[in-house]
Amino acid sequence: MTGIAARANEDRPMLGIALMLVAYLVFSCIDTSVKWLAIAGLSALQLSFMRYVGAFLISLFMIARGGIHPSRFASRHLLLVIVRGALLMGSTVFNFIAVRYLPLTLTATILFSAPIIICALSWPLLGERVGVWRWSAIMVGFFGILIAIRPFNESFHWAVFLSLGAASCFAMYTIITRKLSGIVATDTMQFYAGLVGTLALAPFAFMEWQNPVGGLDWFLLVMLGVFGWLGHQLMTGALGYAPPSTVTPLSYSFIIYLTVWSFFLFDHLPDRWTVSGALIIVVAGLIIWYREHKLSMQRQTLEPGDVPAAPPPGAGPPN
Fold first, then answer.
1. Which partner for 43 in 106, 189, 208, 263 could form a disulfide, CB atoms 3.0-4.6 Å apart?
2. Buried-exposed string 169-205: b where 16+ CB fall within 10 A, e elsewhere
3. What's this model's pTM, rounded to 2 decimal places?
């Protein structure tokens, strides 16, 4: 036996769209909760640990429902699954530290450079041909990043490098997820992502542990893992009901959600530079998405008997 079987995809695009929108709402709750708890004085490593240990326990329960047996934790792609979990953990830690110092809207904007990074790396790492349109979008996207972070402005903060690190880790995580999608079950990937994060972060979390002050803070701390597990379940489910070309653009709803949370909870709205940079990055990401979608359709038309091409680079929170 080789573990849990991956669920077959279904053609239900409206359900996929709804699940993706809810997934990014849930993901926005993670960053908002982390910002709230960081202001209260809790460390990023403690928060990262709670995000992973909660998701790990839920995933362990989901897998163990059919009985505790080594075969249920097996995978022919175990090393790649573990590397995927390590990249997700690195992205989470970088992002949680950055959230303490930067507005949520800025960290989200920088994060959405991930599709641009994926496209830029697809030629040296995957050997994929990148044409003039996508190289142009890459250049435009990086220009948008410069506008958002303003490296030569007095308001520049070193934490933007952590956000860029989070986006880079998430880009690599997305590439590996694309390779594993459809051949490794969601519960298996969730389990190992939680296991890697829990084991790696536990020593640091215990050294820096600080109890929350009130009931709301305790609730948010515990819910970090629930939000993380639920968001990834919803996102993976969405990709099972609708093709990535349909649901990928919906990932930009994440910026809208965080803008609303930032205004109502932290009395903060993005400045004109963040808005301008975000718009340029979104346009660049959509150009890349459109070109990937068009090329994928051409491949399927010319070679109808082949397996569909890999999904276009997507964006999403590194949580």
1. 208
2. bbbbbbbbbbebbeebbbbbbbbbbbbbbbebbeebb
3. 0.82
